[in-house]
Write a structure and sequence with these properties.
The complex is a heterodimer of chains A (473) and B (247). With 473 residues, chain A is α/β, with parallel strands linked by helices. Chain A has helices at 12-20, 23-45, 50-66, 68-81, 92-105, 117-121, 124-129, 140-147, 164-174, 184-201, 227-233, 254-265, 298-303, 318-322, 324-329, 340-350, 370-374, 381-393, 400-412, 415-428, 446-449, 462-472; strands at residues 85-89, 110-114, 134-137, 204-207, 211-213, 218-223, 237-243, 247-248, 273-278, 288-294, 433-434, 437-438, 454-455. In chain A, a hairpin with a 2-residue loop joins strand 11 and strand 12. Chain B is globular and about 50 Å long. The chains are: A alpha/beta (473), B alpha/beta (247). The structure holds iron/sulfur cluster (SF4).
């Protein structure tokens, strides 16, 4: 089961430990992110007006968000007019029930899924399983994760932490294909044979959505494999689940995003398959279409003036690929289907900043800023991280850290106290200094000295040197 | 020019030589350097660790101290980034528009040392002599927030005797991130070990940067490994001459 949800089971530091100590996973991740990083830079450099398109993309999203309820109502009307049905889900449980009910009404035991990170957010697979319905992933990487009973670790390449040899072994075991090599073509063929059969006989499909256009009721999915096209056209019933922030007011708004998304995510000029569909058409494609609009914490994110820019995200995963923390700690460390820098700001906000484990995510960054440079819709992730760090402290009682920080602030708001603090530090470090450096520090500071030395406080501070010099002059 | 030095709390306490070098360098270039002893810290650590109201208090103090300066120079990219980029935002989050305006105005007069020399004064050759093999690590805040670009490299290329060796994957963060290095020590160390591997591959005697916080991190790793490569702040290289060696 590849469903994951968004509630981390551990703090980031604890969860990161596993990947950090897995050299195979570190190598898989390092290689994959390095390759895509270089490709993305090239793909972006081809467009001289890249910055303009970024600005435009951000502006369209901001405008859409400013009038979100209007656009959603327009979308509902347009979808209905085109023969589709619209459902509103306040949270994950409601969304799961809506999808299960539709599937049950058609008395199916299996559904196929595509482009489904939002369905992973609501843990749909488990929800359907509870009703005796098995969901089959059709994205190659999602299928790998599902067969391995693993968790996705990347937005776009959920199995980025796996290499070809591991996938070959998995397919040999789970798909029963003997004599399989680790050639990508052979692996894809094995998956294709398995999936083709499913596409042809499964009656209900569940998809995500990249965009939904309010004025026409059109839903859009971009993909690389073509499995989406199958899922969207072959079954009798199509259920599309989308977060409410995916709505765009007008058709022409897609122009910016169809340039921004492929270049940022797969470093392609254009993605191989782009599907648009509006409602149903007799005798062509699914004869029943359901659009499920999911809130699940999004309206609360929208209400926060600083945090709301997180909702611009088009899930391109560029921020993951350039993130030095993600590259080392891996996607699982974020404990949510949304990993990496975007996960670090989105997950805790979707949980209302009430989840203690999720609240460690905004601290899982050095604030190096690589994500902000890469983000095609200009989400200032470092800014939001810093802002959320402050927000996560609201209502928290005093602990060792807060006492230390408050004491330091007291020293730092007055020069006389500051000078005194410097002298105290020089005396206090006494027992820890050896040969001019500190090899071991106590308490929470030991995290530093476990692997790094710390310089000792020198005999004379800069201000003392300056004072001395002034006197001598 | 009358230049007010913001030494930064870290340099004041742990790296006074960087301060001395900055003073000597700017004076050698014919400027009057002043040090207002009322200064303390910029508040970066507090804001970045989530202590917003404490950060605002420190920030208020900073603005009071430096508001009347003509120009402020600091040998630290991250502190200048804090002042120029985050002061206005923090004030905005606090809903204090008067403070926000004061912060924006002050931010225009505060410069990181290398951007001040190259982009503001238009100087590349500062008359330095440093006969060593050196590699340069561009710190994240100087590169991505201040956009100092290759200003530090321009300065280094003009230093007599210096052999500049390009650092592989230079733009990768060293893993410091202030309290990140303490809250997530394992991830931080994993990033540092890659950075150190790249530094050592250059076979340099010194690794330089414009920020002692990153250098303290990198240096802490180099020292633990007994590597023989030392961290040196750029100001100390630029201040060094045939007659006076700073680092
Ligand atoms: S935050 Fe930006 S870079 Fe990251 S996935 Fe979303 S759109 Fe892409």
């Amino acid at each position: 089961m590849s469903s994951g949800g968004i509630k981390p089971a551990e703090t980031f530091a604890v969860a990161a430990h596993e990947t950090l100590n897995n050299s195979q996973m570190r190598r898989n991740l390092g290689r994959a992110t390095m390759t895509i990083r270089e490709k993305r830079l090239k793909a972006v450099a081809e467009l001289s007006n890249w910055e303009e398109i970024r600005t435009q993309g951000a502006a369209i999203k901001d405008e859409a968000m400013a009038h979100l309820s209007e656009h959603l109502l327009t979308l509902e009307e347009s979808v209905k007019r085109a023969g589709g049905q619209v459902h509103w889900a306040r949270d994950a449980a409601e969304a799961r029930e809506i999808v299960a009910k539709i599937a049950l009404a058609h008395q199916v035991k299996e559904v196929i899924k595509v482009k489904s990170i939002t369905t992973d957010e609501i843990e749909l697979n488990g929800g359907l399983e509870a009703h005796g319905i098995h969901a089959i992933e059709t994205d190659l990487a999602e299928l790998i994760v599902q067969l391995a009973e693993d968790r996705p670790s990347h937005i776009l390449v959920p199995a980025i932490h796996r290499n070809r040899a591991e996938i070959r072994d998995l397919f040999r075991k789970k798909l029963g294909v003997k004599d399989l090599t680790d050639e990508p073509k052979e692996l894809a063929n094995a998956a294709r044979t398995f999936l083709r059969e499913k596409f042809l006989h499964v009656k209900v499909a569940v998809s995500g959505a990249n965009f939904a256009i309010a004025e026409s009721g059109t839903v859009c999915i971009v993909e690389s494999e073509g499995n989406g096209r199958m899922c969207l056209t072959l079954p009798d019933v199509l259920i599309s689940l989308m977060g409410i922030e995916k709505v765009l007011p007008r058709w022409e708004d897609t122009a910016a995003f169809l340039q921004l998304l492929p270049r940022s995510s797969t470093a392609e000029r254009m993605n191989p398959y782009t599907s648009f569909w509006s409602g149903v058409r007799e005798g062509d494609g699914p004869q029943e279409f359901h659009l499920v609009l999911l809130d699940n914490g999004r309206t609360d994110v929208l209400a926060d003036e600083v945090g709301r820019q997180s909702l611009r995200c088009i899930r391109c995963s560029a921020c993951l690929n350039v993130c030095p923390v993600y590259e080392r700690a891996g996607g699982h460390a974020y404990g949510s289907v949304y990993p990496g820098p975007i996960g670090a700001i989105l997950t805790p906000q979707l949980l209302g900043m009430h989840d203690a484990n999720a609240n460690t995510l905004p601290f899982a960054s050095t604030l190096c800023g690589a994500c902000y440079d890469a983000c095609p819709v200009k989400i200032n992730i470092p800014e939001v991280l810093i802002y959320l760090r402050g927000k996560s402290r609201v209502g928290k009682g005093a602990d060792l850290e807060s006492i230390a920080m408050k004491t330091m602030a007291w020293f730092m708001t007055d020069a006389a106290r500051f000078g005194l603090g410097l002298k105290l530090a020089r005396v206090g470090q006494g027992p820890f200094v050896k040969d001019g450096v500190i090899h071991r520090m106590p308490g929470m500071l030991s995290g530093w000295t476990d692997a790094r030395d710390m310089p000792a406080v020198p005999k004379q501070s800069f201000r003392e040197w300056w004072k001395h010099r002034e006197i001598q002059r | 020019m009358k230049i007010d030095l913001f030494i930064t709390c870290l340099n004041d306490a742990l790296f006074p030589r960087t301060g001395e070098a900055t003073v000597r360098l700017l004076e050698r270039l014919g400027h009057e350097v002043r040090f207002n002893p009322a200064q303390t810290c910029c508040g970066q650590m507090h804001l970045n660790t989530g202590y917003r109201s404490e950060a605002i208090e420190i920030m208020r103090h900073f603005i009071d101290v430096f508001e009347s300066s003509e120009v402020v120079v600091a040998p630290s990219g991250s502190c200048v980034a804090m002042i120029r980029d985050l002061y206005p935002r923090a004030a905005e989050w606090a809903g204090d528009h008067e403070l926000q305006e004061r912060a924006v105005a002050l931010g225009k007069k505060v410069f990181e040392l290398t951007e001040f020399l190259v982009n503001h004064l238009g100087i590349e050759d500062v008359g330095a002599y440093y006969p060593h093999r050196v590699t340069y690590h561009p710190t994240c805040h100087a590169a991505r927030v201040l956009r100092v670009g290759d200003a530090p490299l321009k300065l280094l290329r003009k230093v007599r005797g210096l052999t500049l060796v390009e650092l592989p994957l230079a733009d990768q963060c060293c893993g410091f991130g202030g309290t990140f290095s303490i809250k997530n020590p394992e991830t931080s160390t994993a990033m540092l070990s890659d950075k150190i591997q790249n530094i050592l591959s250059t076979r340099s005697e010194a690794c330089t940067a414009g920020d002692n916080s990153c250098l303290m991190h990198i240096g802490g790793g180099l020292s633990r490994l007994q590597s023989g490569t030392r961290p040196v702040h750029l100001a100390e290289i630029l201040a060094s001459t045939e007659d006076e060696v700073f680092a």
